[in-house]
Amino acid sequence: MTPFSRLSLLLIGFAALLPLAACSKAGDAPAATPKVLAPVADGASLTPPAKRPEAPRWTLTTPDKKPVSLIDFKGKVIVLNFWATWCPPCRAELPGFAAVQKAYAGKGVQFLGISVDTVTDGDVAGVAPLAKNAGITYPVLLATGPVVSQYGAFASAEGRRLFDGTQLLVPVTFFIDAQGRIAEVVVDSLEEGELKARIDALLKEAGK
Fold first, then answer.
1. Of 10-14, 151-155, 170-174, 181-185, minimum mean pLDDT range
2. Which pairing describes strands 77-83 and 109-115: parallel, antiparallel, or unpaired?
3. Can you list the pairs that 126-130 forms with residues at least 24 positions away whose Cβ atoms lie under 8 Å?
4. Is the CATH number 3.30.565.10 carried by domain 35-205?
5. Residue 109, beta-bridge partner list
6. Strand (E) positions, 35-181?
7. Residue 115 near residue 122 (C-beta atoms within 8 A)
8. 169 near 162, Cβ under 8 Å?
9. Any bridge partners for residue 112, and if so which?
10. Where do the domains of the chain lie?
């Protein structure tokens, strides 16, 4: 995995598992040392249910202007992935997300993508084609500043840096339990096995 960042209206960065360097339009700069993900075979990295904050509700639109709300998927385990067209690690992980979504079809799991190209100088017109080419069949929405800020507050509270007022990091994935609470935040690209381990732990909790 290669960390990636881009400087525009916001300074965009990507935090990886290993302390590698990031690059930006303004020139090379060292990336912040990221946290190492905990093992998840037994759900060890998930926040205990009693301490999980409720996921902020939102209604966003797809590139073809169809509204989608988080509440539409009430009762399901949700994998909410923030990404951007200009982010190589984001693009690289999308086919895996598509494959895992299909593997869990009908099992009470919903994947959702949110492109942050709308709040950066990204290629908004390229969002839908990129998702289609990656095999994405789940909803992909366009981010708004308030949604990024709301979810960033939870990421920052857990020591992750999705959005702290000046810096936005992608890819970042929120795992939301069947009760609508944020169980884990991962600021990193994820392999299929890592996705499945977290999903299985949340499904087991929900008795599914």
1. 10-14
2. parallel
3. 126/85, 127/63, 127/85, 128/62, 128/63, 128/64, 130/85, 130/91, 130/94
4. no
5. 77
6. 59-61, 67-69, 77-83, 109-115, 140-142, 167-169, 172-176
7. yes
8. yes
9. 80
10. 35-205
Prediction pTM value: 0.79
Q: Which two tokens stand for residue 112?
A: 């959702």
For residue 182, which of 65, 26, 45, 20 has the smallest C-alpha distance?
45
3-state secondary structure of 187: coil
Q: Judge whether residue 37 has pLDDT over 70.
A: no
Residue 21: count other Cβ atoms within 10 Å of its Cβ: 11
pLDDT in tens, 120-179: 777 899 999 999 999 999 999 999 988 988 887 665 555 444 554 455 678 889 999 999
| 3-class DSSP state of 82 | strand
Structure tokens at 17: 């598992």
Integer-rounded Cα Rg, in Å, for the chain is 16
